[in-house]
Amino acid sequence: MKGVGVVKRLDWGKTGQSMTEITILLALVAAVAISGLMLTGEGTRDALCRAASAFGSTCGDLFRDDFSNLNNWTIQNGRWQIREGRLCIDGPGRIYRSFDRSDYVIDVSLARLTRGNGYGLFFRDSGGPKFNGYSFQYDPGYGRGAFIIRKWINGNELAVPIARVEAPAGYDWYGSDRTVRLEVRGNTFVASVDGQPVVQARDSSFNQGGIGFRSWDASSACFDDVSVRRP
């Protein structure tokens, strides 16, 4: 009959034909996904990883360190050292790891403050003494104690944090092994301690950079098992 279209159906009884067609369809879906992701500015590897994640695969961490040594880090200042497999500092100091990334999630499986005014975790850190970037700070010395996010320009922190949340009354700042997570996506940064979001900030000044740690004044702190993964 004229004017009547013919719809071709997959014949699941013909295994060879159906598997070939499925493979072609999956390849087309992956190609479209990769092309779309690359148009948003992601590299080829990132695009492949995201496309693979749709099928339950994973590409692993961008960076991981258990602090068996300090080979992956640059010490700008301070007495950083490895103690019993942990990165530790007494007094003021800064240490960083450079790489060019925009969005990522930083996980620190152990962060312990023994004394002093606090420690910080750098992100989107451009590196060097005159760096630009941001830091999340676990800061019992700020007011009555707060979780804050700061911006840094030419190696100097701005006097006013870009975000600040006071800790609950009676919060135990010292002697506890905390987990810290920092999610960096676009212009939005979310810091969590022990699985609970504690402070969020938005800023578009700096769009890529590495990570690092800091301490100040007479603080004493240790860290272990840091990882950076794709968000």
TrEMBL record:
The keyword Methyltransferase does not apply. This is 3-keto-alpha-glucoside-1,2-lyase/3-keto-2-hydroxy-glucal hydratase domain-containing protein. Residues 68-229 form the 3-keto-alpha-glucoside-1,2-lyase/3-keto-2-hydroxy-glucal hydratase domain. The chain crosses the membrane at residues 22-40. InterPro entries: AL/BT2_dom. GO terms for molecular function: hydrolase activity. It comes from the Bacteria. Keywords: Membrane, Transmembrane, Transmembrane helix.
